Fold this sequence. Notes:
By secondary structure, the protein is mainly beta. The chain has 1 helix and 35 strands.
Amino acid sequence: xxxxSQADSVDGLGYLFARNRGGADVWGFVEEFAPSGGxxxxxxxxxxxISGDTIVGGAxxxxxKGYASGAAYVFVRRGAAWTExxxxxxxxxEYGNHFGQALAMSGDTLLVGTPGEDDWGTDSGAAYVxxxxxxxxxxxxxxxxxxxxxxxxxxxxSSVAIDVDxxxxxxxxxxxxxxxxxxxxxxxxxxxxxxxxxxSGGKFGSSVAVSGDTIVVGAPSERHGGFDGAGAAYxxxxxxxxxxxxxxxxxxxxxxxxxTGERFGGAVxISGDTIVVGAYYDxxxxxxxxxxxxxxxxxxxxxxxxxxxxAGGMDWFGHSVSISGDTVAVGAPFHGGSxGAAYVFxxxxxxSADLWGQVRKLTASDAxxxxxxxxxxVSISVDTVAVGAxxxxxxGTDSGAAYVFxxxTGGTDGWGQKDKLTPAGLVEYDWFGHSVAISGGQVVVGSPYDDDGASAAGSAYVFRLxxxxxxxxxxxxxx
Length: 479
């Protein structure tokens, strides 16, 4: 999945690609998606998440509950079709919260970042835990508000990640990341502890990822190797240094490729024993792959530096990264004059083991020369990629959209576009598609400037793939 958050000016769109769409190993365009309702300037597609048959797209400028209160839209797969299932909103929407600016999903649990929350001072931030069937069948209801950062401008919720019962929320303004465990403080409660902080000013917590017992936290502004803003990524392991503790095991950097302002750690992703780290200011951008105990050696080792085959200028390749098994998706939202693109890589593509070759370049079927920022966010789950485009003008300026691509759409490994997601109710400046998540036939899309509850309070939209393989929408309410 890739985003183009300023497609059609600034409404935003999301794009879905699938393997084998258009021929063997072709990642072809499957579908373009945006919220219905003709809303403009909501920035749908600014964030995307995908897990199985569910895609979520953020629209942080959705203003249904107040200017830029925000929202997230959920799309689910039913048969052959992706449909809008719902729109998620917090129980306490407020002006400028930007609910939906960051999204993560695991199974039936959705984590939504709200960095503009003001409970502990201006932009102290928060995150919301939403669950499927909470409050009714196919209803995504709020079960917990995570509120830990006790300082103004901490911007907790700028980044979020979840894997089963472990959630991670970044607060780059406070150089912190917070880990929450389901049922840690009782049934359905989310207990938390704070990881060791990063270097002050390094924006530690700008990106987070979790897989099993391993957590990765990006600090893209840290100084390393004598270079300001070279960036780093921190790796923590559960039970390292003591039972139930999360200890720091290593700090990843670009090493010999490090340079001033390259922003290594601006995006991070992990799947099993493989970590992906984006460095979007490394020339036209880059993504670095690290593997645990590679070739029998203990620890995490760099195995590959990924770049796009048609790099040019400041593509911001690596601004978003996602990994599922042996497949990596990388967004380049400024490629082609800010039209944007996303790229798919496979571990053994190109004839040799661990080559991690480029399989396909993903673009929207309706791409123009406008500043869509397609690829601002990407999310991959097995055979489905979601791409956010929060500046597509699907329903007005910056309303946003998200696109869905599938591995075998258009032929074996075709990665063709399956859907374009645009839910009902979007208006201008919602930034739908600022964040996306996909899981089990459902897609969730954030709309952090949705005004449903208050100005810029934010919302999330759920889409489910239907029997006719059309995404059906569901509007989510948290109150």
